[in-house]
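Collaborator request, handled under Task 6.
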Amino acid sequence: MSRVSTIERNTKETQIQAVLDLDGTGKSQISTGIGFFDHMLEGFTRHGLFDLTLNVKGDLAVDGHHTVEDTGIVIGQAIREAIGDKAGIKRYGSFILPMDDALSLCAVDLSGRPYFVFDCTFSTERVGELDTQLVREFFYAVSYSGSMNLHFKMFHGENTHHMIESMFKAFAKALDAASSYDERITGVLSTKGTL
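Structure tokens returned to the collaborator:
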């Protein structure tokens, strides 16, 4: 069964087109106008083995907030749509990822109920053209539009670039695990019988 979704979002602040394949090989074509953000999303696709085509035109003359937040909304919607009815998937995934000085944990529950925890602070305000405050905004938007529990904890880190990259890659690995199939699961993995 194909797990590919196509999402388009057009507002006065952003115009976004995305195609996500959860069962890809890690290929990406990404353009958001924010170089470091592109780099993080490329790492997400490569390490999760997702294929992602993403074109974003945002009001960067204002700042990066709408571009990053709305991209999170679209990616969350794309994940939710691609997963479909969740029959047979493991539902839960977690990963602790080292990136030089940084060590982060990401845990995911594709429960259909959004909840978000972000236990991380950055010592710098920017990495390249990305305002580091927007990392939280991106993952918050992914969590709520994707209807998932999403938890992050940074155990330690000194270099903000490494810390953020560790988080994106940990999310990729955790999502890959949560969205993968287990042949022993009949229907959805829930005592309620639905997610």
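The cover message to the collaborator said: "Residues 160-179 form the longest helix (20 residues). The chain has four helices and ten strands. Please let us know whether this matches your experimental observations."
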